[in-house]
Amino acid sequence: MPRSLCFCFTIDEDYEYLSFQKKEKSHTMSTTKLVLLRHGQSIWNKENRFTGWADVGLTKEGEQEAKNAAFLIKSAGLNFDYAYCSVLKRAIKTLWIALEALDASWIPQELSWRLNERHYGALEGLNKAETAKKYGEKQVMIWRRSFGTPPPPMDNEDTRSPRYDPRYTLLEANALPKTECLGDTIDRVIPFWENVICQRIRRRETILLVSHGNTIRGLIKHLDKISDEEIMNLNIPTGVPLVYEFDENIKPTHKYFLGDPEEAQKAAELVANQLKIDG
């Protein structure tokens, strides 16, 4: 298995939604919580581009989404023991904004390339609607959402390749993707989940994980045992916290988005409709 690169700092209708109304507590004291948060809107999200491992920043709307997520987390009475994040700045900035708003910037934070978005290969930087117009919505939907079909690979000599990025210099060359399908993304995420994050959940620590749409989809597929076909229809909105509650065996007992269910559904539909061609 390739070495994990991380940095430590020591200073669909299946979802249940948590509304702003008071909710009766019915869960046992053994419940452990994990909050999954997709980064706020990025510049390329707004421009409707395939992003992948490209390191683009947040929009002003994305920064506000991070603050809104913190408000929802605080309203739910959640306090974190540890935070995990990818090494991409749109996720890192979301994490920092949220923790600052929660007055929790001091909690330990760990960054890992294994939590990066899936690599979109040669599609990175291309407009989704224009790509759908060129190749057809059906083909691009397969590249974008299927479990086992990756997009065309990025050439090794392409200056966008992670092999030229200093944050990955400690990784072996065969660990750096040229493209990824969701299955490939899961293959690198789940070892980190099982060998690192689960260790803290076993100690009943409350965890915040800030990552990316496909990384979170892959983890949800693993936790909820979603089929390869069903996962194509799962979309993760930006900036909306998703809470998982686990029993002592790290089996999910409850899951729910924080906030207004209609707003969360609208945000997920925006993600689903990114291939729509104007005109």
Write a structural description.
This protein is α/β, with parallel strands linked by helices and 279 residues long. It starts with 5 loop residues before the first strand and ends in a 7-residue tail after the last helix. The chain has an 8-stranded mixed β-sheet with strand order 1-5-4-6-3-7-8-2. The chain contains 8 helices and 8 strands, in the order βββααβαβαααβαββα. Residues 1-28 have low confidence and may be disordered. The longest helix is centred in the C-terminal third of the chain and has 21 residues, at 182-202. α4 packs across α5 (137-145) and α6 (182-202) packs across α7 (213-224). It has helices at 43-46, 60-75, 89-101, 128-135, 137-145, 182-202, 213-224, 261-272, and strands spanning 6-9, 16-18, 32-38, 82-85, 109-112, 207-211, 242-246, 252-258. The chain is globular and about 45 Å long.
